[in-house]
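Subject: Protein record for review, amino acid sequence with backbone structure tokens
How to read it: Take the token row as a discrete description of the fold.
Enclosed: The protein record, placed directly beneath this head.
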Amino acid sequence: HMYDFLKTSNGKLSSIGMLGYSTFINTLENKIDFPDMQIQHGNFEVNDVKSLALMLDRLRLREEISKQYHEINSKRYIVLLLPTLLRPASTGKILLSSTDPTDKPQIITGFL
């Protein structure tokens, strides 16, 4: 990979990792000049077990779903599209559960 990067400035080392690029878009209902949605692109070469496992772990998918992704990736290149609302209508809160810094915080999603 290093040779490809040094010779052509391309390849795996030419991006910031699994989510090397994003798309920013305005939805049809958006009347302002800046995007309200971001789509991150996760690219995984055939049989990219380590990177795919890391991404699926971060997404906290059920084990049976993760297994299906790994099965597909054992034979095929995969692109995951991960949409994110940049200005959601719902807002939530993260609160401290106690004065103990090792306690998990209380997360109130505030979904509509």
Notes: The longest strand covers residues 37-44. The longest helix spans residues 49-59.
